SPRY domain-containing protein 3-like
Amino acid sequence: MDDISVLHQRALNLRRRMRDIGDGRPPQERFMRLQKEGDTLSYQGNSEEVGCYVAGHPLSKGNCYFEVTIVDTGVRGTIAVGLVPKFYRLDHQPGWLPYSVAYHADNGKLYNGNPVGQQFGPKCARGDRIGCGMHSENTEAGFTTVFFTKNGKEVGSVEVPVLAEGLFPAVGMHSMGEEVKVDLQAEWFLEEDDSMMMVDSHEDDWGRLYDVRVRGMLLEYVGKGKSIMDVGLAQARQPLTTRCHYYEVEIVDAGEKCYIALGLARRDYPRNRHPGWSRGSVAYHADDGKIFHGSGVGDAFGPRCFKGDIMGCGIMFPRDYILDGEGSGDMDDWDRLQVHQGQAGVQNILYLKEEEEEEEEEEEDGEEVEQGQEGRRVTVFFTRNGKLMGRRAMAVPPGGLYPTVGMLSSGEKVKVDLHPLSG
């Protein structure tokens, strides 16, 4: 009877595998107590039971790495990312059962086939990326080396046993509101090449980042994108000055709605408001071509912008203007704004001529001036593909006006150059 049971079990396993590949259908991913929409997973349990996702394909030599971006940590942030056997139990977190391993976001611990974890790396929060991969595919001895990353940097590695069927990407969640995005085609570079160094240096350019991921000069929206409160905001560390008075944004991917905005805002600008919607800000919005100046209602301003378009924003300062803490050094290098030589649309001088100042004052007589800022006014201008779209006079809040980029729909990516005139 024992021999018959063994043969029966082998037959069942063979039937399962033939069901996956015998009729040409791809292996199916499995998940429980989770909702899957595209590449997004969200927890659907009652916070007492684990929800788990297992991919349809194991990691391999040609696809040895995947990443999970935390969209929302929910109540407890009990999100786990790792590798498991093909028919792993979906009511257990990855890493709890034998032949599985996982990095847990809520406590930074590594679980290696055991419900008791060991301290491994930092905790992870909303917007963080957790990666998992294999350094080599040498599993002849039944072991392989699995490594984990946080935001592109390796946290650590561990040697784990491997079954013949391989190790499958897995994600576990255990509390209400938890939501992640899974990228099963992510790439990992073992060597810290120039591009990795560039990512670190450009991340330092940003003083505030909310639901936005930085990769070199690229900003990517990683928020929910389900309501107007899900704005992704990136604000530069330094304000525009008479020495550095202009920046540009190229739309790399318009995403679902192209809810992309660039402009200027005060340093303490609300994190869940698009640039231009609240006091102390002004912005050109790509989706409708409108300008928003301290109000949720925009004015017709320029054409809509799409993938490949370059939007620019800068300040024309009065000739005698001096910012807080700024010296009166040589300004010869900034006498003229020249964007994309050969396009005659942008030929604006840095400092306003007297007649232009008078014209702006007349245009703004009927507009409400920000409280307490009547004596410090500049002209903000916007460009599209090197051509001037228009100008708007505004008061400068204490501390200056900071380059600020907003995004609000899935898939949006922009390339930002904070110093396009530096040569």
Helices lie at 2-21, 194-203, 354-363. Confidence is low (pLDDT under 50) at residues 18-25, 191-201, 325-375. Residues 2-21 form the longest helix (20 residues). DSSP finds three helices and 29 strands in the chain.
